[in-house]
Design goal:
The complex is a heterodimer.
Chain A lengths: L3 E4 L2 E4 L5 E7 L5 E8 L3 E8 L6 E2 L7 E3 L5 E6 L8 E8 L8 E2 L3 E5 L1
Parallel strand pairs in A: 2-11
Antiparallel strand pairs in A: 1-3, 3-8, 4-5, 4-9, 5-6, 7-8, 9-10, 9-11
Chain B lengths: L3 E4 L2 E5 L4 E7 L6 E7 L6 E7 L4 E4 L2 E6 L4 E6 L8 E7 L8 E2 L3 E6 L1
Parallel strand pairs in B: 2-11
Antiparallel strand pairs in B: 1-3, 3-8, 4-5, 4-9, 6-7, 7-8, 9-10, 9-11
Classes of the chains: A mainly beta, B mainly beta.
Chain lengths: 113, 112
């Protein structure tokens, strides 16, 4: 039982490049989330999904897209990376929406030069 | 939307002392208040949570108190140990489709 896994763990991009972060969970959770963590700013919600085939915007969605084609996977895409997107990205999943425990992945550190 | 403020941003205590971290929230409809611990280089993990129908909850050395009237809640860690050193995040949610809003975190350092 791996829980929530993210790939890749580290990535360096040049401004304007694109990339996709993959999140996979094996707990059969309906709800999945992508957060970014920046120093002094806590965890901010980028996008989330309440089930297979659904996505919704969070607090800071600009510059990101997501897809949830399979229940166990939640992809975060950057179409044209910018230095402001340098951050640590965490995927999370939960059994309950909004008021239940979040299970986080190990994080993906992205640097945009 | 919900706004959660967390203080202090850094906290240093001696081993064995108590530590208190405080959070305030803006939306009086918030009813779920979890606390997450993040060790250096690790993922955040839930350590305790409280719902608005109770005022206090304890789990061994940690406790959370909630004051709905004042819209604030606090994390209390007693008999601190070096392994308590981490960043702690509070959060709040009203439920009903509204996601968790996190505080900005408190770096706790327990010194020997």
């Amino acid at each position: 039982n791996a829980g929530v896994t993210q790939t890749p763990k580290f990535r360096v991009l040049k401004t304007g490049q694109s990339m996709t972060l993959l999140c996979a969970q094996d707990m059969n959770h309906e709800y999945m989330y992508w957060y970014r963590q920046d120093p002094g700013m806590g965890l901010r919600l980028i996008h989330y999904s309440v089930g297979e085939g659904t996505t919704a915007k969070g607090e800071v969605p600009d510059g990101y897209n997501v897809s949830r084609l399979k229940k166990q996977n939640f992809l975060l895409g950057l179409e044209s990376a910018a230095p402001s997107q340098t951050s640590v990205y965490f995927c999370a999943s939960s059994f309950q929406p909004d008021t239940g425990e979040l299970f986080f992945g190990e994080g993906s550190r992205l640097t945009v030069l | 939307g919900e706004n959660v403020e967390q203080h202090p941003s850094t906290l240093s205590v001696q081993e064995g002392d108590s530590a208190v971290i405080k959070c305030t929230y803006s939306d009086s409809a918030s009813n779920y208040f979890p606390w997450y611990k993040q060790e250096l280089g690790k993922r955040p993990q839930l350590i305790i949570d409280i719902r608005s129908n109770v005022g206090e909850k304890k789990d061994q050395r940690i406790a959370v108190t909630l004051n709905k009237t004042a819209k604030h809640f606090s994390l209390h860690i007693t008999e601190t140990q070096p392994e308590d050193s981490a960043v702690y995040f509070c959060a709040a949610s009203t439920g009903g489709g509204n996601k968790l809003t996190f505080g900005t975190g408190t770096q706790l350092k327990v010194e020997l």
